[in-house]
Structure formats: C-alpha cells, structure tokens
Specification:
This protein is of the alpha+beta class. The chain is built from five helices and eleven strands. The C terminus is likely disordered.
C-alpha cells in the first residue's frame, strides 16, 4: 500500500525544502543537518528533521512524497538517489517550504523510517538557477518513506555535478555531538527554546541572506552554504 500526501509542484528558495516534526524547534542549520553523513542531498543528522536539497535555486519543482508499508523498488528513471534514517519527534510531521511559506501534513507515526530521496534534472536546474511560472519544469524529486530500523545513510545513485558537490560537502562535516535517543528524550521546548514558527521563518530568512552574501564572494560564515563557483551564473548570462 502506498499513500501520497504530496504530489505535484512545490516552491523552493535557496535550493532547499524541509521535513519538520518538532513544533518547538526552528530546525537545524545546514552543517548540523549533514553532520557525519556521506550523502549530501538529504540531511538527517538531527532527529525529527530532514533538509532536502534541490538543483533549482528559486522556483517550482516537481515533488512527490510517498509513504509505503515496505521498501519500494527503485525506479531507474531517477538520476540521484540517497537513503537516510528518520525518526519523527511528534505526530505533526510536514513538508515545509523555506520560511514556512507553505506546508503539507505527512501524517507520519512516531516510529523509525527509512527515507529514499530521489532527483532528476539537477544540473540543468542549477544552471538555469531560477524558474518562472510560465517556464517548463526543470527538475523533480521523489521522497519515499517506509518503516525500518535505523541504519547508516548511503548514496545509491550519483550522476550530477551538483550532487557530487553536496556529497563532498557532507563528508567534510564532523559527526553530531549527540545521539538520536538523547534528542528524542528532551523536554518539550528545549530544542527551540520556546521558538515557534514565526521565529523559525525569521531565522531561515537571516541564514538565507547570509548565503546570498557568501554567494557574491563577499563573505563566508560558519554554517552557511556557499554556492559552488562552477554553478554561479556568469555576468550577462
């Protein structure tokens, strides 16, 4: 049996979208999300959250979420495939756009899941950078979840240059200083210090602004995601 809580297009900013389950947390930063991982497209180092990377910087991408009873077969149509483990920390899991602009309820149980994140067209979308509403779709993604014991993250399939860049980025991040069990057992409100979604949106806007500066080559702050030079748009392009 398969359930599809999300199917169609979602809007991304700064090449990112998230799965969130902790109502008291504003979510991890980039380095935290990928700490200790070998796969750089789906950050799962912080329990209760997933950081999903896209090729497109700004605009709408194809996006489907599937929840399965068992591990589904892998469709060869997908060019990039990674797998991670994920443990929701509440019954309020959602796919959430940057700054909380929109969200979709995923209706996940508080159990361990295996997550497979698949993408195609990432390099084409990265080169294009921005997709306007009247333009054809450039990249699309599939997020599949099914109940499974925790296991290490892994890269299943890799073809795009931008995917290689983010896998390399993840492998440079040190392991997180905490365990999954410690994070799940924290008291309500500890993770976000009482922060709600308004503060979450504010933090993401601040982080994104820092990334814009870094991308222009004028600053590179700890925890921010620099845009790879080979994917920057040339003047006049």
């Amino acid at each position: 049996m398969v359930r599809r809580p999300v199917e169609g297009e979602v809007h991304v900013h700064y090449g990112q979208i998230y799965v969130e389950s902790d109502p008291d947390s504003f979510g991890p930063g980039l380095a935290e999300a990928f700490a200790g991982q070998t796969a750089g497209l789906c950050g799962a180092a912080i329990p209760g959250a997933l950081w999903l990377t896209t090729g497109l910087h700004t605009g709408s991408v194809g996006f489907t979420v599937e929840v399965h009873d068992d591990a589904p077969p892998l469709d060869p149509v997908w060019e990039e495939v990674v797998e991670v483990s994920f443990l929701p920390v509440s019954e309020r899991s959602s796919l959430t756009q940057w700054a909380g602009e929109a969200s979709w309820d995923l209706d996940l149980a508080e159990i361990d899941y295996r997550v497979r994140y698949c993408g195609r067209g990432m390099d084409q979308a990265r080169r294009r950078d921005t997709r306007l509403s009247e333009e054809p779709q450039l990249d699309s993604y599939l997020l599949q979840l099914w109940p499974a014991p925790p296991g290490p993250d892994r890269v299943v399939r890799q073809t795009a240059e931008i995917a290689t860049y983010w896998h390399d980025y993840a492998r440079q991040q040190p392991p997180p200083p905490h365990s999954r069990r410690t994070c799940r057992g924290r008291a309500p409100g500890q993770g976000g210090a009482g922060a709600g979604r308004a503060e979450a949106a504010a933090r993401r806007r601040t982080v994104a602004l820092g990334r814009q500066v870094a991308q222009r080559g004028t600053a590179r702050r700890a925890g921010q995601r620099p845009r790879p030079a080979r994917f920057r748009r040339r003047p006049g392009a």
